[in-house]
Design brief:
The protein is mainly α. The protein folds into two domains: 177 residues, Up-down Bundle (Growth Hormone, Chain: A); 198 residues, Up-down Bundle (Growth Hormone, Chain: A), CATH 1.20.1250. It has 16 helices and no strands. Helix 1 runs antiparallel to helix 6 and helix 3 runs parallel beside helix 6. It is globular, with a radius of gyration of 21 Å.
Length: 399
């Protein structure tokens, strides 16, 4: 009997969709849960702000390494095995980290956790495209991507709330048990691949596909924009807890964690931006998203908490609009090896997260909130204007 891809009316379609949505929710909750906890790490482990921020950036570096490594292995060994290992490998470190009073041990485990986390994004979209009917795969993909943003938001809020009420160790144990539950659900319910065909290409040919994109100036500009957008956005959110715990606000960790609900606008902004692209064009909407991001960032300079919250909401709307349209432009700009081009953009995106977590620390330490906001607000606007000049010169040379 010949197998057909799962259509939207199939029970297996929804099994896969909800399994990957759950997995995505946990993976991204695990990735970003430490972001509101940085001031707690500074106080408890007696480390600097820069050192505390390594609990985010080292995880991202591990994730980048994992994406490059596990992406190749997923093409050769299968999809579901890496999805399951990602969940198990992400949950286990949360059980171990509270057992050691050493911040160095925590950093090592966060780095290893980052490598494990990569198993899901390295395999999930390929698994969906192989197993789902092409007419319905967009529904499953949208559910998966929305769960990314939702997991990141809830992970930050829940970690801050639990830490404020109990301790950071309690927050990690809750994440660990959640990971085990999600792992067991995926282990029991996720269908095996039916259409996976192992890649027979040599690693050399795969690497040549990556190198091909690094020789394309137009794609390099897009990758650079991914780094810049995340640097500014992550930088603001990473040092927001330090800003709001200080005078004149003196907010609790729970109150600060509630600020991350602003990410809900990202869940709305991305699909709306995709819908409006057909009417107004990708470049115009992306440019608008960048200016909205910058405006929201600058609004956080206000003394009023209400204005800061509004600014964060506007920044989220602008960022997720600009990011989703930049990711879309990758496949349009790449003429060959579109899959590897998308992987490279994902790598660039997470490099931006890493830089925004740790490389922004000197700006915060020397310029405070005003210095950080000024830099983060100007940077994406300056980059996109510079990009427009470079693209115009490239067009003139082409003629």
């Amino acid at each position: 009997m010949e197998h057909k891809p799962y259509a939207i009316k199939s029970a297996y379609f929804w099994k896969i969709s909800w399994c990957l949505a759950l997995a995505s929710f946990f993976i991204f909750a695990s990735l970003y849960a430490v972001q509101p906890l940085l001031p707690v790490f500074v106080e408890e482990f007696h480390v600097t702000v820069s050192t505390a921020s390594l609990s985010m950036s080292l995880t991202i570096i591990g994730l980048i390494i994992g994406l490059l490594l596990l992406g190749f292995l997923s093409d050769r060994k299968g999809r579901t095995i890496f999805i399951k290992l990602a969940l198990l490998g992400s949950a286990i470190p949360f059980f171990i980290m509270p057992l050691f009073p050493s911040f160095t041990v925590l950093l090592v485990l966060r780095f290893l956790q980052g490598i494990a986390l990569a198993g899901l994004p390295a395999a999930a979209l390929a698994y969906l495209s192989e197993e789902m009917d092409s007419r319905n795969v967009g529904v499953a993909t949208a559910l998966y991507i929305s769960s990314n943003a939702l997991g990141g938001m809830v992970g930050r809020v829940a970690a801050g709330y639990i830490t404020d009420r109990f301790s950071w160790e309690a927050a990690f144990y809750v994440l660990a048990f959640l990971g085990v539950v999600v792992f067991l659900a995926v282990l029991l319910l996720l269908p095996a691949s039916r259409f996976f065909t192992p890649s027979r290409l040599s690693l050399r040919k795969d690497f040549s596909g990556f190198l091909y994109h690094l020789k394309n100036p137009a794609l390099l500009l897009v990758f650079g924009l991914g780094i810049i957008l995340q640097f500014s956005f992550t930088g603001i959110w990473t040092y927001l807890p330090f800003h709001l715990q200080g005078e004149p606000y003196s907010l609790s960790l729970q109150a600060i964690s509630n600020m991350f609900f602003a990410y809900g606008l990202g869940v709305i902004g991305s699909p709306v931006a995709g819908w409006l692209t057909g009417k107004f064009g990708l470049r115009k909407l992306r440019l608008l998203g960048i200016f909205v991001l910058a405006a929201g960032i600058f609004m956080t300079m206000a003394a009023s908490i209400v204005m800061i919250v509004i600014g964060l909401c506007i920044a989220c709307l602008g960022f997720f609009t600009a990011h989703s349209l930049t990711a879309t432009s990758v496949s349009e700009t790449a003429t060959h090896h579109k899959g590897s081009a998308s992987s490279l953009y994902l790598v660039a995106y997470y490099i931006g997260v890493s830089f925004g977590s740790t490389a922004a620390a000197p700006i915060w330490e020397n310029g405070g909130w005003i210095g950080l906001v000024s830099f983060a607000g100007v940077l994406p606007v300056a980059y996109i204007l510079l990009t427009q000049l470079v693209l115009k010169k490239m067009k003139k040379r082409a003629y």
